[in-house]
Amino acid sequence: xxxxxxxxxxxxxxVGVEQxxxxxxxxxxxxxxxxxxxxxxxxxxxxxxxxxGWQSExxxxxxxxxxxxxxxxxxxxxxxxxxxxxxxxxxxxNDDSExxxxxxxxxxxxxxxxxxxxxxxxxxxxxxxxxxGGSGGDAEIFFYDGSxxxxxxxxxxxxxxxxxxxxxxxxxxxxxxFFYDGSxxxxxxxxxxxxxxxxxxxxxxxNGRLNSGAxxExxxxxxxxxxxxxxxNYEDGSVxxxxxxxxxNGxxxxxxxSExxxxxxxxxxxxxxxxxxxxxxxxxxxxxxxxGGDSGEEEIFFYDGxxxxxxxxxxxxxxxxxxxxxxxxEGRATGNREIFMxxxxxxxxxxxxxGDGDSNWATVANWNPNQLPDEFNETxxxxxxxxxxxxxxxxxxSVSLENGxxxxxxxxxxxxxxxxxxxxxxxxxxxxxVTTSTPIVVEWGGVISPGDGVGTLSASSVELQPGSALSxxxxxxxxxxxxxxxxxxxxxxxxxxxxxxxxxxxxxxxxFGGEYVVASxxxxxxxxxxxxxxxxxxxxGEAYVAGIxxxxxxxxxxxxHPLLDGDADLDGDVDFxxxxxxxxxxxxxxxxxxxxxxxDGDIDFxxxxILEAAFGDTVPAAAxxxxxxxxxxxxxxxxxxxxxxxxDTACDGSNLxxxxxxxxxxxxxxxxxxx
Length: 675
Description:
Oligomer: single chain
């Protein structure tokens, strides 16, 4: 038993209409009279047209070429397409119509029916086909599953207007609307029937009226329950469905002109509100097309979920159809009936063919196909390159970092219509500005790292998924990277981390310690699971993290203990590990990670004395522990052999890390000569 829910709230959108953008490409597919009934599936388009006479034939455009699928003396009509498969009604010389199926994978045509009565109104989904067959007032519904044909009805009533989605079929009958789910058939409607039903998956829509004389309303069956989507005092019709999205036209303005309405699975929006007729809506996902105009001046309009684009501007356009962002229609501006197709700009892939050393986003030749991304292009960086974006006003529909780094440098501005995805082993970095309408999503293993060196990356919203990281580089006290958001920072997924890295300078003022604002935001969800640690020789250990404040001033502030003198590996204590680093690099040039604790560029006795004084210190540092006698003897004994000018082993100080003999000499106490 069905449950009826009445849903009637309508939100009237103040949606502005933009003229067709340069990112849309409009292609005239035909140049001959008599083309009509276009249908689209992906980049495949079918239509019917006259071919050197008055008998119509079927034509297929596959995104590149046009193929004439029929060439006979019969009238081939009403083509439908799904992928590269096409079905239509045609003749075989027996004075009745039959159903034909073109298999795009094998480029072969199969006649599905061969009987003495008319077969008509074919529809297709994949390799499944439905149609009505019969004469007079007794037509039945037939279903072909790619190999065999099954008769779904067998009554004395007339069954018509079948529609199909996968193995689900709906149709009309004088008794009402019926739904076949691949195994069983059930009656759906309890109201007076209006136009024929439409199906998408297990969702079925139709218009009907509850009482004789009442106006028609829109109904949705979701596989379990029926929801009444409209409840008003005007007519609603021409309903179409894609998933849980439903579109129709209604007459709210005293019946004088119709407007377009969209139900998105939760709310109803009025897409148009003007003084002319809008009709023939079609839907694919959240994309809607329709024709609108008055006094015979009809244009094609496209709604993408956020705004409306006018695709034509010549006054004679009809019967729009949509698949994804591909739109087809019949145009009559020249007097002939021609088929037109509008497509959004193609997806762009970074291929770095702009020349040696050129890794700039704004170089057209670096993209495949060669064009600069705009707000309608899906872009992908997947070849391991670091892409530099250092100029303002750069755009994209979406950005996918699948294998590489996007560096939005200071002065660079990237506006993304939807969002940015940062996959594993990829990094979004820089000191520029990134704006998106949906959050930047950092997936497992991905990193967002603000700054050019130490600096600020400005963005809209960021979502860190499990195992991802916001990485911050820190200089001196209070000097560090910052992620500055105008929206939400989402840390609600367990496992995201905040690794901290020190950038040492040339004097003691560059040592870290104090407070660092690593992120600011409008709103915050969750907390980091791990703060500090990470990979690399300058990764600051978790022991240095004195605290983290998520509450004050809409920002995240990290407090760090001061850097311990002598802590070469930044793990929060001064021990034999740090001594072994100094010993291995003693006498040569180097930095802090090699034992240069006085930051003068080399490792010498001055650094040893710093290490000796700090040996045994830990954070938080309360008091400097006194090394035990055995420890001091060990240290002094090890250093006693450093720098003595005996040539038992020759090392120049630059090969201590890689020359096994040098390293063995240090660790065994042999005298080593540094040159």
